[in-house]
Design a protein that fits this description.
The structure is a homodimer. By secondary structure, chain A is of the alpha+beta class. Chain A is 34% helix and 18% strand. Chain A starts with a helix and ends in a 15-residue tail after the last helix.
Chain lengths: 524, 524
């Protein structure tokens, strides 16, 4: 019954943002309220083709789950934490974009590290493949099974163990939802140094496992910097406890980094310790309109120079992305149409100082003509509204059909050229080709939409987009990871020696290859 | 001849700070000038007992260097880059503290990655052990050989390849001296997000290999966060190129982290890419006197809250450390004697704003009595003078005899108790027992001095200090690493499963164990 309710809730909301898929238009809606709106228009999961069929994958030499296995799991976890019903499994077998679909018949919900360890020990002995799953908000098919892998969900592992107010370190289980965790540490005057559109659903363990980036990397850096401790369970069931809550710990190889960004293929993250900065006392958000991409780059440069230590986000949206949000989500840009838009956020400890810095920056940017129009929000509901425009582009795109998603790092000078080139290349064969993302980090989200998945469109995009990226020494996956969908393109960003070493490490740590198979490492 | 000159320069200066060991007292001395002072009082390297004898180490089953090997190296690198003379090798066989001494008879000076690769390929085939060496400023005996390991110096690999002003990323070879590199990026309005007392000598590759911490971690985080790319040569000679200059790159396992902090035991770092923040336009430094350690903690808490994003350093010095500096280096504290001192630095983009924040913080701290006395420096020479007090404590200590150095992370509530307990335990058996360090990071430098090395004093300190640290879940090496001296204490901070995995990784990546043997991993 619990499962049913859980699934129904997911079904009516966008599983990534936890917002209703058909979002009621309101400029002053409060995000907390949004999370509790139950739309009457129930949108079910898109039931796409099986991944194994669409991508012609061969099943690995793993055992198949039998009744004896089920009995073992029920005995270990109790019946209600062993999910077997197909309808309850549907949302866990499919990603929220409807791009990939597996056929698992078992989902397990351990509550603690010991249970994860016992499950893995058993699965390793039986050569049963597993797929670790957090909030299932990934974008590269990393968090759903490809065949019948047992899904190990962290959804019941959501305890916050400790918050140290002075050092700013929070330690918690991996199943804590990012937004809930952030609200928890807010009570101590702290913030989680990670924010992304999926915050209402994604689990912190999934964030760590995928090295999630998001909206504030420009200020707080990535998770390799802010995660101080990780506890993970290896394929064998052995627990690797690197749960230091110390800011500095140079005692041997820093194993936690193995689990950050390896997408559950080297271990299942069960606990994390994160260094949290003080929660800012003042936040301002500017929404700007610009005529050319050159102006965008110039404005970013000026923002870095003039806003310095208070710059906490620097985002970019092109006209086509904005149109998509306006059309499908009925959100309205707060300024007139422009070819390009930027969101520039400041966060600091003194509102007078921050406003003075921001005003000086804006006056000069508007005065020089680099920025054509803009508005500044300081009240929370207004800022949330503006942020929702940026955060919900991915959601808006799926209203138009199948989204081909590319998440690439590029040198700034090449940043937008790839969108223009792709537009030229695809012409009228697609509904939309647009770009947005984290200009502050050199991270572009290139998105292309067609009515439904078409192999010939994929062939027009890939590997060209990866070749272009490699030519300018970019990264073919900036923050989404490789998962299932990008794994065979790793060589565009990594050398053969590096790939060989990765495979050796996988063989060392998971010799039977049961941890999240068909993901990250290339087939050949 | 080049080597002779090189060695002579090292001999008259403190090799860690590159400052004369007998420093002329001058409040207005400029640091750049200091580096060029050639003191007439030549202080030679302390010639301590051989490490292998003092610590009763068994030599590994490595080949011994023969004439054929020398011929190969000379053929590869030319004669002048193969150092064979005992007098030239002395400074490379010994650490600057005079704690450890090896007996290498060959030092190689490759100029590029290809040469390092060729050397390693040869050494691996011949089973010749090597010791990678940067500026040899380490504090745990990690950068000098234990027996006759071939020293591979990065001193000629000091080319800066590129600085991208907009993204702030610098790419360079690993032998760049930290301070020189920082001066180079300063021309682009950037700074290296790492600063430490040894900046004038240490190499960036050594910093990366040891995951050096230093004075500004509280603001800029550690190197796992700011290093974007690493190129390293494996024991086999294979080159692992992870030299991304992108801020975000989630394409597979992030191998660069294997080389950050593994102290040259998994590979030799040949190039790095570092994300540099904008160089601050305004810097202020407050030097404070406090009566109790409780006041220190309270002041740190207030500094975090009130200075927020501009707090760039928060250091702590106890009375005994200050006495040592005053006595041996003739530096004078800028305020009257206090039981405790703090250095609080702000860096920001607007001097008026920063000064206002700092003044508000200081007024409240002085008003509440938490801080008894203080002075603020804004002019560079004055700030350098105050910083030199903090940075040269390690150097001052060696004037008094042999220093037993401990570098531990502790929860703030336990931070200073360990110094007091150790003072009680050691009583009159030692000359000095003092504590200083990075209070902002929870990182204490506990230092004990006796006239010369005494085994019975070591036995009074160890393993007690590690046991105390482990009891409060601290780290027995916060930033110095394990090197040779701390390797057998790893179990106080790492679980047996974690140590087992580290050993497996070492076996995978360096099956013959030729890379910096006797370091990092425990013997048993």
């Amino acid at each position: 019954m619990l499962m049913m309710r859980h699934f129904r809730m997911r079904a009516i909301k966008c599983p990534r943002t936890a917002l209703p898929l058909l979002y009621p238009s309101s400029q002053n809606a409060n995000r907390k309220k949004w999370h509790h709106i139950h739309s009457s228009a129930v949108t079910s999961y898109p039931r796409c083709e099986l991944t194994s069929v669409r991508y012609n994958v061969d099943r690995g030499k793993f055992s198949q789950v039998c009744q004896e296995d089920i009995d073992f799991f029920i005995n270990l976890l109790d019946r209600h934490r062993v999910v077997l019903e197909e309808s309850d499994l549907e949302g866990h077998n499919t990603d929220w974009l409807g791009m990939v679909r597996g056929a698992s018949s078992v989902l397990l919900k351990p509550r603690n590290t010991e249970e994860v360890s016992a499950v893995m020990n058993y699965c390793n002995q039986r050569t049963l493949a597993v797929c670790p799953q957090g909030g299932n908000t990934g974008l590269v098919g990393g968090s759903v099974p490809v065949f019948d892998e047992i899904i190990i969900s962290t959804s019941l592992m959501n305890e916050v163990e400790n918050v140290d107010k002075l050092s700013g370190v929070v330690t918690c289980q991996s199943g804590c939802v990012l937004e809930t965790l952030d609200q928890h540490v807010a009570e101590y005057g702290l913030m989680i140094p990670l924010d992304l559109g999926a915050k209402g659903s994604c689990h912190i363990g999934g964030n760590v496992s995928t090295n999630a980036g998001g909206l504030r990397v420009v200020r707080y850096g990535g998770l390799h910097g802010s995660v101080l401790g990780v506890e993970a369970v290896l394929a064998s069931g052995e627990v690797i406890n690197c749960m230091s809550a110390m800011k500095k710990d140079n005692t041997g190889y820093d194993l936690k980094h193995l689990f950050i960004g390896s997408e559950g293929t080297l271990g299942i993250v069960t606990k994390v310790a994160i260094s949290c900065p003080p929660r800012p006392k003042a936040v301002n958000l500017a929404f700007l309109g610009l005529q050319t991409f050159e102006d965008v780059l110039h404005t970013f440069r000026e923002a870095k120079a003039k806003l310095g230590e208070i710059l906490s986000s620097c985002e970019f949206i092109d006209r086509s992305s904005m149109e998509c949000v306006e059309l499908n989500l009925k959100l309205r840009a707060p300024i007139d149409p422009h070819p390009f838009y930027m969101l520039i956020e400041t966060s600091g400890s003194n509102s007078d100082h921050d406003e003075e810095k921001l005003n000086m920056f804006l006056e000069e940017s508007l005065g020089s003509g680099q920025v054509s129009d803009g508005t500044v929000a300081t009240e929370p509901s207004r800022m949330l509204y503006i942020w929702s425009i940026r955060e919900r582009i991915a959601e808006a795109l799926i209203h138009e059909g199948y989204t081909y998603k590319y998440d690439i790092s590029l040198p700034h000078k090449d940043f937008y050229r790839i969108v223009e080139n792709m537009k030229d290349r695809l012409g009228d064969s697609v509904i939309r080709c647009c770009g947005y993302g984290h200009i502050g980090d050199g991270n572009l989200h290139l998105n292309i939409v067609s009515k439904e998945f078409q192999r010939d469109i994929v062939n027009l995009i890939e590997p060209t987009v990866f070749e272009w990226t490699a030519e300018v020494s970019g990264s073919i996956s900036a923050e989404h990871g490789l998962g299932f969908k990008k794994r065979n393109y790793m060589h565009f960003s990594k050398s053969s020696n590096a790939i060989k070493l990765m495979k050796q490490m996988k063989m060392l740590m998971d010799p039977k290859g049961i941890l999240n198979p068909y993901k990250v490492l290339p087939e050949m």
